[in-house]
Amino acid sequence: MKIRLFGTATIAALAFGLPAVAQTPIKIGFVSTFSGPQAAIGEDMRRSVELAKEHLGGKMGGVPFEIIYEDDQFKPDVGKARSEKLVQQDKVNVIAGYIWSNVLLASLKSVTDEGDTILISSNAGPSQIAGELCNKHFFSTSWNNDQTPMAMGQYLQEKGVKSLYLMAGNYAAGKDMLAGVKRTFKGEIKGEDLTKWPDQLDFSAELAKIRAAKPDGIFIFYPGAHGVQFLQQYVQAGLKGQIPLYQVFSIDAITLPQQKELALGTLGAQEWVNDLPNDANKKYVADFKKKHGVYPSYYGAQSYDSIMLIASAAEALKGDLSNKDKVRAEMKKANFKSLRGDFKYNTNQFPIQNFYIQEAVKDPEGMMTVKTIATAVKDGRDPYYEKCPMK
Amino acid sequence: MDYLLLQMLNGVQLGLLMFLLAAGLTLTFGIMDLVNLAHGSLYMMGAYIAWTLIGWTDSFVLGALLALPATFLLGIVVEAVVMRRLYVRDHLEQVLATFGLILFFNELVRVIWGPAGKSIAVPAFLNRTVEILPGVPYPAYRFAIIVVGAVVAVLLAWLVARTRIGMLIRAGASNRRMIGALGINIELLFSLVFGLGAVFAGLAGLMAAPLTSVKIGMGDDILILAFVIIVIGGIGSIKGAFVAAMVVGQIDIVGRAFLPDLLKTFLSASAASSAAPAISQVLIYVVMAGVLVWRPTGLFGQRT
Predict the structure, then answer these.
(1) Where are the transmembrane segments (chain B) (predicted)?
(2) What's the ipTM?
(3) What pLDDT was estimated at residue B173?
(4) In Å, how far is B104's CA from the nearest CA of chain A?
(5) What is the least distance, in Å, from the CA of B240 to any CA of chain A?
């Protein structure tokens, strides 16, 4: 097999007059949502991956690389099938992407166990994978789901907020998010609704419940299109100005173009903000804005980091990603300029990192964005790593 | 008490949207004996057409008003091109053909508007609350849906009960062959009824759009509920569709507003939240089954 491959490569090199040293190009699969109401998130990730490719000059460790995008259609079964296609048919070296925890959980096994391929989550961070299901083939350039709401909860606890009403979509990530905020927020929970995900976009019944419960604040987790709907309906119900809204992943560069002024002043937590003052981030944000006229989101920044993580391993190994153990050992060093600033990997291969509190504001040009107002958590670890058998 | 009132209004608002969708469905099913699975596609097309027209006119009201004749025309064209061939076929073939129409419209939308989905903003003058009772604010846009839905329901009741066309519609619903034999232009009547159904579906779609979002397949889920409504209400009966839509709207809200808290007393929060919508869905079908046992042709259906 090896000889045949080599033979084919030689023939191809001869036929196309390529240099005699033919290197196998690195193949990266990228699974995200590129159709339907949540396609804006996938587009932001794709733009950032393309920007990373541009910044790298199309090469990792001197070897050209290509990226194969697959659309999960926001459905776990489709995401799994597309991931299998990338492993079995395209024979990619690494798969990255995954917005949704339920899609990632459905796909993980076929990629890492059956496919023996490295998977980097650019967003989803279900608690199971941080804990007992942790996997040597799995790396995260994002967070565990619990961490961001934990940062928000801690901030609200310190600010002296007495009671909260919690709402999230009823799926893997939504449950983690509410568990997370309850780990650090010790005040009264006036009510808690997990709404049907992703079908339910009408929150009238829940908003009426919130009005009756009279909490000090509302905490939500509604990514993408759902966040747009929730905020609109929260404002329409006349709750803005009466009960403050606190959020994770629900007001960001994806949703703000539609939420506009309705979002002004709303606080959220995040591990990456567009104004973090490191050089890599300044370049990324400036180039992204120049190219697309909008701000990038954390989805994009994390995807950019995923590509840079692969590139760091490829640099160290001179472009040869064939030995998986070596690739993993290099990735584990996290030896690259992350857009959030440098971080280390924990034993479960999730980052140990800071979390910031951000506020929705207007920039000097009048465009809606978020800015950092406080550091909520320094060098935060997720609450599950001790359950992970990897050391 | 305020809380109960708010939740009931939410149920009424949902019920009226469902009624608009079910009204067209019950007319085509009852009068033309046509099973139209693609009725949900007209709901979707209404929303997409409105999105485009609102963009052009820069006004929600104007865009929405222009979208109504546009969906009427679309309905007439669909009737003339596809449906007319299906009247003489049996129900299974109608189901197959109209299912094909769903796929066609979903693909058409993908080609014209792209896969990403659109959102329609609530018009500025409705982006506030109204006090329905002193100290009980309600979102103005939802209130507007209730008003529009109620006005349309009254107009439709008047049309069916007091006009010549309404008389023909009612006659058609009870005995199609006879009105044909009496020299009524059935083809024209059918076109008109189908177009009318398309307008109502389109109106429901464009009014729901700011509350949910405009996306491919948005009508497919809600269509099943619309079928349940016309079965409960009695096929061909506008009054039945109205009553059944109200009942279904209230059941849905009860399922979302009260059941989770009730279930949480003995289930975990996550299990309760998963179970409540499922139970309220089941409850809708239990009501349907109950009605069918009691009155096999639905609440207001024609006795055979």
Answers:
(1) 12-30, 37-54, 60-83, 95-113, 140-161, 182-210, 222-248, 269-294
(2) 0.80
(3) 73
(4) 17
(5) 25
